[in-house]
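Problem 12. The chain below contains 180 residues. Write out its predicted structure in C-alpha cell notation.
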Amino acid sequence: MSHSRTLLRLFPRSPVRRSFTTTSPAFVSVGDRIPDIELVEGSPGNKVNLAKELRGKGVIIGVPAAFSPSCSAAHIPGYLNSPSLKAAGQVFVVSVNDAFVMKAWGATLDPTNKSGIRFLGDPDAKFTEALDLSFESASLFGNNRSKRYALVVEDGKVKEAHVEPDNTGVDVSSADKVLK
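Solution.
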C-alpha cells in the first residue's frame, strides 16, 4: 500500500469548509445584551455607555472607518436620508476611532445634526471586541477594526443582527434592509 493511501486510511479526509472571509463568524446574536462598556462622544472625557443609554428602541451601526469611501458615501448617508429613521428610535454610529475623528465625521455628514444620529468612538476597540465584531485589518487601516454591521436593539438586547459576511461590504447592514 502506498504511503498516501496509508495516510488517508489513518487520517480520512474531512469536509473542507470554504468561505470568502478570513475571519470567524460574528458571535453577537439575537437576545444578547449590549456590552456594558464606555465609548466616547465629542471628546475623550465624554463617556457614553450604550448598555445604559439605549433604552427602548434603537439601532447601533458599526463601521470599519470614519471618512472611508463606503462609510461616507453609501452606508451612513443611507440612514441619514431614510424616511424610516425617526421610527427606529435612538441611532448611534460606532467606529474604532477616537472621539475627535467621530465628531468631525458626524459634522461632515450631518452638519446641523438634523438626523439626531450620534457618532461614537471606540478608541481601544473594547466595545467592538465584546460584540466579537472586530477583524484583522492592520494592513488596510493600521489596526484591527469593526466589521460593518447594524444591530436593532430593544430594551438593551439585540433584536436583529445584520453583519456583513465579508466584513466591509454594504448590503445586509444597509438602511433599506435594516429600517424596514
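Discussion. The two ends are 62 Å apart (CA to CA). Students who got a different answer should revisit the alignment rule from Section 12.3.
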